[in-house]
Amino acid sequence: MARVRWGRVAGWAVLVLVMLVTLFPFYWMLRTSFSNTRALAAGAADLLPVDFTLGAYRRVLGLSSTAEAVAEGGSSGTVNFWLYLRNSIVVATITTAGQVFFGALAAYAFARLRWPGRNAVFTLFVTALMVPPIFTTLPNFVLIKELGLLNTFLGIVLPHLLMTPFAVFFLRQFFLGINAGVEEAARIDGAGHVRTFFRIVLPMSRGPIATLAILTYITSWNDYFWPLLVGKAENVRVLTVALGIFRSQTPQGSPDWAGLMAATLFAALPIMALFAVLGRRVIDSIGYTGVK
Amino acid sequence: MTSDTVRAAPRTPPGTVPEPTPPPPLRRRLGDLPVAVLFVLPAAIGFALFYLWPAVRGAYLSLTRYNVLTPPRFIGLENYEKLFGDRLFWNALKVTAEYVVLNIVSQTVISMLLAVLLYRLTKSMVVRGIVLLPYLVANVVVALVWFWMLDFQLGVVNNVIEWLGFDRVAFFGSDLAIPTIAGINTWRHMGYTALLIFAGLQMIPPSVYEAAAIDGASEWRTFWRVTLPLLRPVMALVMVLSVIGSFQVFDTIAVTTSGGPINATRVIYFYIYDLAFNRFNFGYAAALSSVLFVLLAGIAYVQLRLSRAGESDLRGS
Amino acid sequence: MKRCLAVAGAAVLLLSGCGAQEEPEQAAAGPVTIDYWLWDTAQQPQYQACADAFHKANPQYTVKITQYGWDDYWNTLTTAFVSGTAPDVFVGHLSRYPELAAQGQILPLDEYVTKDKVDLSIYQDGLADLWVAKDGKRYGLPKDFDTVAVIYNTDLLKKAGIKPEEMAELSWNPQDGGTYEKVIARLTVDKNGKRGDEPGFDKKNVATYGLGLNGSGAGFGQTEWSMYAMSNGWQYGDKNPWPTTFNYADPKFKETIKWFTSLIDKGYMPTMDIVSSGVGQIDAYGAGKYAMVTEGSWNTKTYWNLKGVKSALAPTPIGPTGKRASLFNGLADNISATSDNPDAAWAWVKFLGSPACQEDIVAKEAIVFPAIKTATVKAEQAFKDAGIDVKPFTMHVEQGTTHLAPIAEHWADITATMTETMDAIFSFKADVNSLDQANATVNGLFG
């Protein structure tokens, strides 16, 4: 048993180390977010906030006047935080729901149904992973514009709503791992594929689906350039686009460090909250729930 | 019973799905086609509109001289001929390959370790949450934060290094820039990748571990003989995704080194971007992208073949 | 509509409202909204004030300002041009407008200028010429200008025992660097407190560099080396604007660069590895790692806003020609060729280029120097009121030591070649003679 104990100690040591390396930059972001951007350079070596202020958070929430913002090295843009938060939630939720659902449908067809050309079509779908975004952005933008969807939520979510190669690929791989026996039993009982999918496969894949949903939600939440192009208008502007104002605004300029860090932490909060609320249920359901 | 019995569990040949009952003749040819069409249709529409069409268009543009703002002019294979003599292209490939290897090795090893540790050691939500934290932060911001922390003169990391009595390190100098950028991206993605592997680990039925334990197989042996083979579909996914993702590294470099110093970090995607949007040489950029596409497809194909991604040892157990 | 049919059957059709797309924009008769893009948030308030004043004077026109950060600005604009959603007016850049003009994306203003008898002589000499493209047509009215000066940390200067008056009279030469190099050496301090001009100075362990560095400057070197090279009698090309050959292989340029990079070797200036591993010159200066830097006037306020350091300005040094030198650069507004209301767009551009905007509003903000001569004086005063004596910037204009920024085709390609070459020279991985090859490549672009 001693060997096992030592293994656990070593394991924990590694885990703690990884967590420290993970967390330190977050501490640094926190420390920077409570600092005054203009004083940061002079206090670069300080481990605590430099010239402590809540100004950055006031800027993020759109509470500070132009003069106040400029006085602390921020910019003069205005931020309507709650509106953008709502928009981000709308966009990320629709994207996630659509992508996971349609992805699961397709993945099931690739993993479990038998039809001519299946592997060829699947391969084709996976190759979509390799199409550089630089190619897709421009034609997609033109398409969205011609559909009259600029500055609409639909325009922002559409390219990732119906399919991403990642979602299809991911779920297909997990569906392959599901024990076929249960399905077969259901089929023998006379259940059709549609029914098998909704009643057997989806519940059995709660774990992978939850994982995919979380990852999709985060990816969609962090998406920047596409919503910047398609949804710059106030009523659909998402948080990342709005908070872009804390990035460098001029050639060779510096970002508003404190504002950027505050914005980043603040924008991550809703996801952390979501994770905290849903997390246990979601993660616990990730597991071998198939066959007994 | 040896642990090999797990691997010897009956399994169907690759790429096939067990058919429960013998279907009627017509159904045999079409299989589940009608249902499959229904299931795949929404994704297929998304695929055709937002991936296939842009890709076909890109492939066409690679045969043209196109500056984005005026209509493309067909020039045949000229762009591809130019590409072979382009020193910067070959340099970009070399730099990218260096980055991909470093990033994949570090990311896969660390993530795998992390996933196994998470799986074996704790059910704590806090720990799992912490591990995923870096992924919550956008690429560009991650790059900026690390750039600031690793700054030669002001960065906290270099302050600590000096405090420990060592010389300050130029993390983004021409020698270290690529390893540094690989490290930053590993930091951001290790939790994400670990979570994918973790989900795969949890799909493995406890019974196989019990079987291995009864055999008296060591943890090390169990990992190599039981866990890893059963993880194959997920690992194939992880590897393909990370290789493709690594080849397309861009944000981190755009924010930190902009391809410098002396092209040391001018990865292929940064080069493509520079050509397309700064130098309005979209046709040539399209040719580079097409080559990159073929290269990636080739690598992915080999990976999938080697890892036999289409099969799982679990089936029919 | 065509594209709508192509995706018919998809659910998107129901939601998209394809039919409602092609409504023609209303003619200029009714109220018109002018779409205006810019990148600098610091300047947004002053141009919003201009927009308000413009609306007051022309109630039928409303200006809607949209701001994109520099990192997104040109991509977004390119995408907008391709898709026909470009703004009516946008802030242009000298390195970008030639390409846009050559491709017919921006509108020549000559007819408007003639029709409205716009007086181009109100602008600082030469600025208006920057915006005449190779086709001989004018694409912008100047809105501001910038020059280069030295910014130094007054405390560090005092500690080094150098008087501010000395800073105003420095000169340099490519042989021994002159009094300028002496000051830089004096300001450099190693970890043991030894100065750069003292025996035992440890150039490997420098605590404060006498002179900061932003990068190798590629083919432009605006704030890095242009003021030395040009005060050594060098010019970028055979003529400006629109050179047909470049002079990067000129011995005068080579000796300038050789001297300048020698500062790195002597430990007075940071190495390229340090520079590329740093977030920026401004931050390093703010941390007291650089005693002085060469900077463009547009960044002045940022330096003065840094907490923990006190700064002052000094002119760039006098060179072997007996004169100082500074690049002379500036911005202007461009009108999209696809604008629905070019007349309204022109009215706005004209307003931006007029004293009503530049002299009455922009000058008072003390952020940039407006392009109009009389407004420059007001801006100087506004800076003075903010505690900054900007003479070292404006003296170039008064003494005629400005040199118009090089405007050339293929600028992005030139930059690509020169970045690589200059990076290598600054890293001591190549000799200045590698400029021969680079210059040949650059000139090949114009063949």
Automatic annotation (TrEMBL), chain A:
PROSITE patterns, alphabetically? ABC_TM1
GO annotation, biological process: transmembrane transport
Main location as per UniProt: membrane
Domain of life, source organism = Bacteria
Keyword Transmembrane helix assigned to the entry: answer is yes
Spans through the membrane: 12-30, 89-110, 122-143, 149-171, 197-218, 257-278
Topology term for the membrane:
Multi-pass membrane protein
Concerning InterPro entries, the annotation shows: MetI-like, MetI-like_sf
Keywords noted in UniProt: Cell membrane, Membrane, Transmembrane, Transmembrane helix, Transport
Matching CDD domains: TM_PBP2 (cd06261)
Keyword Membrane attributed: yes
Where in or outside the cell it occurs: the entry states:
Cell membrane
Q: Which Pfam families match?
A: BPD_transp_1
This protein's GO CC annotations: plasma membrane
Annotated ABC transmembrane type-1 domain ranges read: 85-278
Q: Which PANTHER family does this one have?
A: ABC TRANSPORTER PERMEASE PROTEIN MG189-RELATED, ABC TRANSPORTER PERMEASE PROTEIN MG189-RELATED-RELATED
Entry's family note: Belongs to the binding-protein-dependent transport system permease family.
Report the protein name in the record. Answer: Sugar ABC transporter permease
Organism annotation = [Actinomadura] parvosata subsp. kistnae
Automatic annotation (TrEMBL), chain C:
Annotated InterPro entries: Bact_solute-bd_prot1, SBP
State a GO cellular component annotated for this protein: cell envelope
Give yes or no: UniProt keyword Signal.
yes
Q: Which coarse location class applies to the principal site listed for this UniProt protein?
A: other
Q: Where do the TM regions start and end?
A: none
Name its cellular compartments.
Cell envelope
Range of residues in the leader sequence: 1-20
Asked if the keyword Signal belongs to this entry, the reply reads yes
Keywords attached to this Swiss-Prot or TrEMBL record, sorted alphabetically, are:
Signal, Transport
What Gene3D superfamilies does the record point to? Periplasmic binding protein-like II
The record's comment on protein family reads: Belongs to the bacterial solute-binding protein 1 family.
Please state what the protein is called.
Answer: ABC transporter substrate-binding protein
| Lineage start | Bacteria, Bacillati, Actinomycetota, Actinomycetes, Streptosporangiales
